[in-house]
Amino acid sequence: MAPTFMGTIIKDGTKYVLKASGNSLYQLDDQDKAKQYEGKQVKIVGSLDADGVHLMFRTRYEGATIFYRLDGTVAGNKIEGHVVLGTGSDHHQGPINQAQFGSGQFQAVRAGGM
Known about the structure:
Elements: E1 4-12, E2 15-19, E3 25-27, H1 31-36, E4 41-48, E5 52-61, E6 64-75, E7 78-88, H2 95-98, E8 103-109
Antiparallel strand pairs: 1-2, 1-4, 2-3, 4-5, 5-6, 6-7, 7-8
């Protein structure tokens, strides 16, 4: 089972972080996406294995549930894979809603100095 982190997105200095129970702070990689959820309660689910990353993100926004799923592989300074965008509801979390907005491929390279 993938670890689940629940808390509030806050700004800590110049960076957005997840503030979980017990005042634990977790650094968030996607600062642009985190900014959208500042002050909101979120649930982040994910895992990292020897050569891959698997993340699911679901939160409420303006009465709707927004859902992202990312599955990728990590090799050296590169990550690439597949992302699915959609919605969910309290009554149905199946693959139809969760892929409502489509899917696509992604690639990223670690920036220097990280």
